[in-house]
Design goal:
Chain lengths: 325, 317, 325, 317
């Protein structure tokens, strides 16, 4: 294993899957060599494989995701890069109407992965900072993944490619180059649908995913100094959701905060909070709290984006309140 | 593949018979939900499908009952599908002719959002090309479908890759109630298609020999690495868009003109030229009628899906 | 006031708004006369107004909703008919990226109404039965309305047209011709963002909207015979949500079921349930329960659609369980 | 409107100066987020915008800084916008040149999802036509934008309605790193556009006189009920797609060829023909430099938005 970034781990995982399985190919805007993608994720991939397997697409998300549906039905395993997760709405019908329903309706399996670089805190404004995962968690027939560590970026990608269903893999742009760690080698799939207890604690559970995992960990450090021990659960997969791990934590802590960078209103946190409030009702010593983005487009200017977005300080404050309940 | 006239007639007659059977069921309250009309589209659906090898793939739409039949979806299964039975290809999950797919028959089921079958067929063709398989993908869309953005995106992709795909545009001159001049500023679909970089040809959509000939050429071109072809086939839908449609909007004179050009009628008028006899055709008619009648009995006797299975099949694998 | 259907009320409301305000126009596929729309809602409208104000559009939802954005910015008030709510995904970018954000980003108001015929129970299968409201409630900048009575179909439409923001107006296909009542005349706007207590009761609150209101009312009749009094709240507007009315009901009943026909997982009910569980924590004598559609595409065949979908009997059963808590 | 040569030069120079100012800020770490490059697109942005009346409406995209300036968005406001200040047209809500709209100036702010400005401009033009107002809408898109489905849908709508809209296609031969032959099976954008039912013309996009002339004709046609025009203007983006782009993918010889055809250079070479002098141009240069320098001071001294206002403006009315 070599040290690398979150982004390196994705590149490495793509290369490994393409070596392992010749059905895997990459497609998207500007992904081919020598350019290698808006974030350069596919640059090392394009250096390794022929241009038939790392294919530039015109700026036609609806059309080329539609084509990926056909490729997948014929047994290929397309890995589709979007330049930003924000553009996933441009290919919406091909995802939420065709790919998600084909197997249920007539048994046609559509095994692709859409790589969607998501999230903000980079001063990129309303169209390069979105976290649209809730749309897809609500849509039957899609799997949704959101890795937050270098190892998970690698391992969840492997499981996503090997899954027989359409999987949307939300990459965290703020972690791309800032997060470093050991990049796994070879086969190291992390199963879909399994949350990770990132930190054990007995006073309050924080349920989260993506970049917010690291904010929650920072909040936990802060509160530990005050004698409050947070348990941090990183969901890793948003569909299927691992509510068992969450419930057993809440059974121990009796307090829970659900936090994510996506808009809070109608977000994935609502589903998680509602499920906890139902299934863990007798365990709870305080209301299930949520902390997500405000109900506004992600604003650009630093003071506004900071106001929009949860962070370690806000998580710590919310947990303090919860523990004072 | 040259066109076997008796086979061609048989498939068109079977299409008509299944369509009329469905229509009668629905008009007498024995249907489930709604259903589409096929009348007038028999030659367009059957002719191109007859040009394919079993390994080729089709992605038909809502007016292509004939293509499903030619590809081996039996009347029994099609009727069971429309009646929401467990024995249909969607096990009661999808409605009327939507989602009527079966990969064992190389049929891709369609969704309502038009023309979603188009990029899917293009992608299938891209897969064939990538793997150097001598296979062809074929799909159908309407005049309404031809003015969508997805039509342009799909043709461009097909042309860029020189993918082995054949696209039949069923120009029945209406999208639901809207005549083509009202939905397409340039109603010349072949011209619009050609401008996107594909070969486009026009053909009489009610003449199965013409449609078959153009399709055969296109399929051969695709299979030999010559890339995509669009075949614009002119026709007229002779009944409402779907079973509930009052169909007041197509002028009578237009319907009369096209009634005289019914695909089965004009084929029959040429029976002599084909070396077939009217008696042979009538024999097919009664064979087909008996076949569909029997299929209906089986379909109607088939079970509905067990509600306990409602979540089965959401996930593959 | 004359007796009429839910559908008649929509036609009448459109005509009234077009008479009242010459900026209002109708656009959509097949809406013009003499055809008058897939469900004939605009037939009487097209009889009354010139073809420039009731305009047929090609089957290009993305393009013509985009054009409606431009019309609305220039001061018109387009009323956009979709043939089925299911096709709203085909115009997604024009709605969730452009229209929803223009005012926040630079002050451009986009006052249109999208009329989306939604919901099922009509054996219409996965693509003519959808309830996609959750996608839009989650998206900042859109208002979302879901009338369930003849009077509300009329009055909420008036408020929607007069609102300066993009409003998605979900019509209930199962109520179109089955629900009859007095159709209001003239000005009778029902304000957006105000729920209605459809039935008072003290044992358990049912929060719902759309066709499920009537199922909840039927369940209430059934339970009343058993001595259990349900309070039924019809939200009417899904964004903004009237959580005050909900909270004050829950304060009295201490039990609550949230039900809708849309897929339960990540649905609007999750937001409502999570908010109740948080804000009404100390009022609750039982967990907040949800009852929505299963996590599958809406199936076609009657036994499957019935299994998919909540109804009066399932609501009654859930409320019985809640009251036994 | 005939082209006033000194005004034309001034707007192009101002565009260049603002662009370079932004570039310098960002390259020295004084920017906020990312930003786009404009170099090479000055004539395409300025020329058409100079053909409009104040009541006309523009919907520019990310390569049209010049159009914003001509329409009255001051360098001060543009710089404040890019720096995320309260005093910019989006009050810090939108980034770089996105969402830089102001209805008082009849500028529609754009979104990333390309080419969304196109149907919006078509809709604005449809509104003008419906109300019989003598107004024109103008919008810009790229070669990449021209192969999207939305391009086809928008042109068809414009042509069906004969709406008064002028569409400038900035064919800089690349969509980000992808050359046009790789994204468009038929790289003849005018041909593709014409097939959709609009008038299409081609013009040298680095020659402001040519762009202006073609635009003037198109604006007049639109205003007089003659319907939409597409103007395909060939150019080259002389720097990376955006500030972070290494820009290795455009071959040097291409850049050299276009460097010699820089819109400001070729305009200056013709100074004599225009009856202007090099001295006049140099005077404009220093005026403009001073203006932008002053504007930057103001912009940098402007306040950031108050975080307490973060939810303001989501709702209109
Ligand atoms: C994206 C989308 N919008 C609306 C519809 C509703 N709709 C179903 S068929 C149809 C008309 C299609 O016309 P055409 O493509 O000419 O095919 P035809 O039915 O005439 O064979 C429409 C508008 C749809 N299926 N898909
Ligand atoms: C729908 C969509 N997908 C992807 C992108 C990302 N993107 C931004 S600019 C660009 C290339 C645009 O090329 P072109 O239209 O030729 O304009 P240019 O930048 O060359 O002026 C891409 C792919 C986008 N903006 N919109
Ligand atoms: Mg048609
Ligand atoms: Mg370009």
């Amino acid at each position: 294993m070599a040290e690398g970034t979150y982004l390196d781990a994705i590149s490495a995982a793509i290369i490994h899957e393409m070596e392992r399985d010749e059905r895997v190919l990459v497609m998207g805007e500007d992904v081919a060599g020598p350019f290698g993608g808006a974030f350069k994720v596919t640059k090392p991939v394009a250096e390794r494989f022929p241009s038939t397997r790392v294919r530039n697409m015109p700026m036609t998300e609806l059309g080329f995701i539609g084509a990926a549906n056909g490729m997948a039905l014929m047994g290929l395993r397309p890995v589709i890069e979007l330049q930003f997760a924000d553009f996933i709405s441009s290919g919406f019908d091909s995802i939420v109407q065709f790919a998600s329903t084909a197997h249920y309706r007539w048994g046609g399996a559509v095994p692709w992965v859409i790589r969607a670089p998501s999230d903000g805190n980079l001063r990129s404004g309303p169209f390069h900072s979105q976290n649209p995962e809730a749309w897809f968690v609500h849509t039957p027939g899609l799997k949704v993944v959101a890795p937050s560590t270098v190892a998970d970026a690698y391992g969840l990608f492997q499981s996503a490619v090997r899954d027989d269903n359409p999987v949307i893999y939300f990459e965290s742009k703020p972690l791309y180059r800032s997060l470093k760690g050991e990049v796994p080698e070879g086969d190291a799939p992390v199963p879909l649908g399994l949350a990770e207890v990132a930190r054990s604690g007995r006073h309050c559970t924080v349920v989260t995913y993506g970049a917010m995992r690291h904010e929650a960990m920072a909040a936990a450090e802060e509160l530990a100094a005050e004698g409050v021990e947070l348990e941090v659960i990183d969901l890793r997969t948003l569909k299927p959701l691992d509510m068992d791990t969450v419930a057993s934590s809440v059974a121990r802590t009796s307090r829970v905060l659900v936090t994510h960078a996506a808009n809070q209103l109608g977000g994935v946190g609502a589903e998680i909070a509602a499920t906890i409030a139902d299934e863990c009702f007798t365990d709870l010593d305080a209301p299930v709290k949520r902390l997500g983005g405000l109900d506004v487009p992600v604003p650009f200017s630093p003071p506004l984006e900071d106001a929009y977005r949860p962070n370690a300080a806000k998580i710590a404050a919310a947990c303090r309140d919860l523990c004072a309940w | 593949m040259t066109l076997d006239p008796l086979a061609a007639y048989r498939w068109m007659r079977l299409t008509r018979e299944v369509d009329e059977t469905i229509r009668n069921l629905w008009l007498t309250g024995q249907g489930v939900g709604g259903t589409f009309n096929q009348r007038g589209h028999e030659a367009i659906a059957v002719g191109p499908a007859l040009c394919l090898e079993p390994a080729d793939v089709v992605a038909p739409m809502h007016r292509d009952l004939g293509a499903y039949l030619v590809r081996g979806m039996t009347p029994e299964r099609l009727l069971a599908h429309q009646l929401g039975r467990e024995t249909g290809p969607s096990r009661g999950r999808d409605a009327n002719i939507h989602g009527c797919g079966d990969l064992d028959l190389n049929i891709i089921g369609f969704i309502s959002h038009l023309p979603q079958s188009l990029p899917v067929a293009v992608g299938a063709a891209m897969a064939f090309k990538l793997r150097s398989e001598p296979r062809v993908a074929m799909t159908w869309t309407g005049d309404g479908g031809s003015i969508t953005g997805l039509y342009a995106e799909s043709l461009n992709l097909a042309a860029l890759d020189q993918a082995p795909v054949v696209i039949i545009v069923e120009n029945n001159q209406y999208a639901y109630s809207t005549p083509i001049e009202q939905h397409s500023a340039n109603p010349d679909i072949a011209e619009r298609s050609e401008a996107l970089g594909v070969v486009a040809v026009e053909v009489d959509g009610n003449d199965i020999e013409a449609v078959h000939k153009a399709s055969r050429k296109a399929v051969n071109r695709a299979r030999n690495g010559g890339g995509p072809t669009v075949i614009v086939a002119e026709t007229m839908r002779m009944l409402g868009h779907a079973i509930h449609d009052g169909f007041e909007y197509v002028p009578d004179h237009l319907l009369e003109r096209w009634e005289a050009r019914d695909p089965l009628t004009i084929f029959e008028q040429r029976a002599g030229e084909h070396g077939t006899t009217i008696d042979q055709l009538r024999a097919i008619d009664s064979d087909v009628a008996a076949e569909v009648k029997a299929a209906l009995v089986v379909a109607q006797g088939s079970p509905f899906p067990d509600p306990a299975t409602v979540t089965d099949g959401v996930w593959a694998g």
